[in-house]
Amino acid sequence: MGxxxxxxxxxxxxxxxxxxxxxxxxxxxxxxxxxxWQEMGPDGFQTKDIxxxxxxxxxxxxxxxxxxVKMPDYRWGIFxxxxxxxxxxxxxxxxxxxxxxxxxxxxxNVLRRIIVTQGDTEPASVEQQRQLGNTAPSLYDLRNLxxxxxxxxxxxxxxxYLLHSYFGREGRDEAEELLARRSGDEDKPRILDAFNQPxxxxxxFFCFTMFADRDxxxxxxxxxxxxxxxxxxxxxxxxxxxxxxxxxxxxxxxxIIRRSAELAQLDPNGDARAQGGIDLPTIQRFINFWFxxxxxxxxxxxxxxxxxxxxxxxxxxxxEAKRYSEHTALGQSKTFKVLKxxxxxxxxxxxxxxxxxxxxxDYIDECGNAVRRWNKAIAKLGLDFxxxxxxxxxxxxxxxxxxxxxxxxxxxxxxxxxxxxxxTWLKTESDMEFVRTLMQPCxxxxxxxxxxxxxxxxxxGQPFEFEYVRFx
Amino acid sequence: MAANAAPQPPVRFDTHPDHYKHWNLTVDGAVARLxxxxxxHGGLRPGYELKLNSYDLGVDIELADAxxxxxxxHPAVRVVVVSSSLPRVFCAGANIRMLASSAHGFKVxxxxxxxxxxxxxxxxxxxxxxHFIAAVNGACAGGGYELALACDEIYLIDDGSSTVSLPExxxxxxxxGTGGLTRVVDKRKVRRDHADLFCTKAEGFRLRDALRMNLVxxxxxxxxxxxxxxxxxDTALHARGGAGSEQGIALTPVSRTVTVEGAVxxxxxxxxxxxxxxxxxxxxxxxxxxxxxxxxDAAALHALGCESWALRAFRELDDALLELRFNHPTEGxxxxxxxxxPALVTAWDDALSGWREGxxxxxxxxxxxxxxxxxxxxxxxxSMFALIEPGSCFAGVLYEVALSADRSYMLDDPDQDNFVxxxxxNFGAFPTHNKRTRxxxxxxxxxxxxxxxxxxxxxxxxxxxxDLGLVTLSPDDLDWEDEVRIEIEERVxxxxxxxxxxxxxxxxxxxxxxxxxxxxxxTAWQNWIxxxxxxxxxxxxxxxxxxPEKPVFDWKRx
Lengths: 472, 558
Ligand SMILES: [Fe+2]
Ligand SMILES: [Fe+2]
Hints:
The complex is a heterodimer. In chain A, a hairpin with a 5-residue loop joins strand 5 and strand 6. The two termini of chain A are 35 Å apart. The longest helix of chain A is centred in the middle third of the chain and has 38 residues. By secondary structure, chain A is mainly alpha-helical. Chain A has a single domain, classed as Orthogonal Bundle (Ribonucleotide Reductase, subunit A), CATH 1.10.620.20. Chain B folds into two domains: 238 residues, 2-enoyl-CoA Hydratase, Chain A, domain 1 (Alpha-Beta Complex); 243 residues, Alpha-Beta Complex (2-enoyl-CoA Hydratase, Chain A, domain 1). In chain B, the strands form five sheets. Chain B has a seven-stranded mixed sheet with strand order 12-13-14-15-16-17-19, with helices on both faces. A six-stranded mixed sheet of chain B has the order 1-2-4-7-9-11, sandwiched between helices. In chain B, helix 1 packs parallel to helix 3, helix 4 packs parallel to helix 6 and helix 12 crosses helix 13. The longest helix of chain B is centred in the first third of the chain and has 24 residues. Classes of the chains: A mainly alpha, B alpha/beta. At the A-B interface, helix 9 of A face loops of B. One fe (ii) ion binds next to helix 4 of chain A.
């Protein structure tokens, strides 16, 4: 297969056409990737023309190239942010030394684990979302779903590039495993719990892109600070794509919320459900569910791994270079609320060990901003209802708060009390049943399902009515 | 390093399945299941959480109890499945924070005790027709894998993420020294380069590589797990001759009375007494021989339950040895005595050996238990002198106590009877960790002596015992008191570390076995590494584990 035109088949800025080692690895992996895509990628629509953005180079003009493309023909490429030849490590124990262009043996296992854990989430989310095309509320949303899907596929490629290029035989094995695990599978589940949860309706999809993809953003941003330069540059470029996923989630929820408020206004009893919409309390329960699951993705509040990652200069804080002036994080601490004898008391933890929580803090702030915007939209429609984020302690499966029970405000409560209120706080079977009844496809240009408002504008300057997916 | 400064309540080893916090023992006919679900907040000492099924001494005390009960209360069991009730985690090994906050001596005793239980798995497999299957249904690291290694077969769940690992060297700067390294290469015969890869790879290997290197025997996906483990159980059960019909006996708690008077603590049991003299740094253990002849037949032995002398005395001796190890660390010399009628001791030996030969499981288990207790005695990191005086009964199984001691002194008093007596059991019933008898080890350079001794089963007096090499010295009645006193005073004045190392080197002459290597290396290498600044210094790896700063090593090799 020596005569392959790598540049056109696999757009890249990593000199793939000169890199025999990487070519050999990808030649074996790519067919497996394509069969994974056929088996576990979007159900149906594989022969349809979809108006998609493709990255064909890493510069300003090239990273967002729009055209109709069939998903299996999507040119999944390998892009890293432009290199800075003088880059120095700017935090942790290796601060001041040149950034690493190869993997230091000492950190080989740790880095591989970080990359595999991140990489595993990319195909996982495609698997979780594979049925959603069949119930899309509009062509615009259908296209956005597929855009997210192909880009998650590309993110997998990005992580596999790192594994293939820097981790030898073990890296190749891990790349195969990334295609072997399956979201929600009893035998080969994905690594993280939130990525094994079903995501079969569009309210869940928007919650997922709002909350789980946003975790991705923060993880990528922290890794974009890494002393391991190829990882840092890879993550930096992925962040440009991730922004669109977050936009899909944030505006998707906003459109459902806005529509819900409108329908409640229309209804004589103020009941959005009666008007074929999703009522705000149900939306709140979905938010509570997904937000709390996604908080777990940041890892334990007090974590040896987190301290090691920071100390080893492998993973920084969000905006480490720009937002902080002190970069050792030594001799400092962070205060936690810890449950002691049924009461919350303050406990100090060395800052490095609290790095997961530092990242979680920034994430929670950003989620809070979105909720405030949604509440403004509700208020603007004259409805007296406020959505809120539950406390970081509520409904946790991992870390400091996992063994106890808390209400959405974060107050410790008994297990009985939690169970008694579970259906008020978390999405229920009947909520999901109801939401599913609304999930009817609307595949006509310019049309949209009743339970969601149309977007304020289309994609790439196109109108909402644009034929984002061609069914012909 | 933070040693246990505050006074701690004594460690005790009494427990019962009804009171387990960490293990769940269920017995269904010939199959027993031991499921680990460690109580996060149930640590033996305050200051650490037992996350991810990590264990401390409390967890191991329950395991030792469970294994003991399997032997005596559930003799019909042929297959034991060791597994976890926690999702995605089998066992993360010894708790690191517990190790980091424990005094050195405690760590050593903890590792030793843990390993003695693991050796008991293997002892049961070899002699009690009981097969152990490790059903590793989640992450399995360090001591967790060492536990699995003690089983006959290891199966690992094939879920794309669970691994077996020995991460001690790369993560903590210490060794998987509770049998891990030795069992990998000696028992499972993993190639040494593979073992080297394995023991330096902190995250370990998933099924495919683990299988390739023989670190496990197989693996199954979660959806087929129960079914396939069930099939392995059936196969093992078949290989072990199918279900048994033996009726067990109940093990009631040993009865122990502790008295403290000044520096002297006395622990009294019906058949054993332990006296601790804190001022003299001296411990004295006296085992009382049987007061009655053995029962008429095996049925009568069963009727006695755990109250027969042969079982009770050795359960008590076992408890006294652990009491000494864990609660009285500074008493460096143990004087071993016996009291009673040697003829009754050998009568019990005769009876048990006869019943065992006739296929009685309880007689077999009692002798195995005696053997294990004697090995616990061999493993004491204390100097041991046997004092053979008139009224003693160093005969048969109790003569093994004298053989286990570093030296034996026998009073040669023409006015009082004082004998030691060999029995057939001294020639094979109680092998040491190196699978030889204590007599074989004693006469390593003169195996013909052992052959001759086989026909010397009559009581022998002090002079003859000395001639035959059965005791170290036999001072006469005029010298005895002073001689023994001086020897004792000299011994307790020597460096405890030097003595421990010396004794362990001298006790197990002859070819090594898996077990001698495990305990020998535990004593030497693991202890040394656990003491070194690279592990426990201010910036040592064990101390820095879980802290924000990384360890600093002294790079010099020896
Ligand atoms: Fe992604
Ligand atoms: Fe994403």
